[in-house]
Amino acid sequence: MENEFDLRELKKTEIEYFKRCAKYWYNYFHMTNWCLQVECLNLEEPAFAMFQGSIPDMHGVITLNQSWPIHMISNLELDRVAFHEVCEMLIYPLTVISEQRFNVIPEGITREVHSIIRVLENTVFKHGKR
């Protein structure tokens, strides 16, 4: 019997679907000034995926966690997580500027960035679909 803590590794088809979704949102926001790389690894921190960027290079890496809770694996969730990570990439320059120029605590910025992205997610993915 499955419980909410049971994990399984994503299938190749699910990973490819995530990559297509990330590329879709990257193109949707016309982020051609960025170089986007999407990879799939086992992340040590409890996250579905994570974004890391480099402003000077305009290079972003979205890392999809290879292990997900079984009950969370669906095309909708893969798409939502891809959207979330691309939105982080979109907002990333402001995050860096805020941290460097205004000496703001990174945790506060991260919290507010995720708050903004959640509003966007809930608008785009209304009623469990996009």
Beta-strand content estimate: 15-25%
Q: If classified by CATH, what would the architecture be?
A: 2-Layer Sandwich
Helix-strand category: alpha+beta
Bulk shape: globular
Q: Major sheet: size, sense and barrel closure?
A: 3 strands, mixed
Order of helical and strand elements: EHEEEEHH
Low-confidence stretches: none
Straight-line N-to-C gap: 31 Å
What labels describe this entry?
130 residues
Describe the overall structure.
The structure is a single chain. Helices cover 48% and strands 20% of the residues. The protein is α+β, with helices and mostly antiparallel strands and 130 residues long. The chain has one domain: Zincin-like (2-Layer Sandwich), CATH 3.30.2010. Strand 3 and strand 4 form a beta hairpin. The longest helix has 27 residues. The chain is globular, with a radius of gyration of 15 Å.
Layout: helices, strands, pairs:
Elements: E1 7-9, H1 12-28, E2 35-41, E3 49-54, E4 59-65, E5 67-69, H2 75-101, H3 106-124
Summarize the structure.
The protein has one domain (7-128): Zincin-like (2-Layer Sandwich). The chain contains 3 helices and 5 strands; from the N terminus they run E-H-E-E-E-E-H-H.
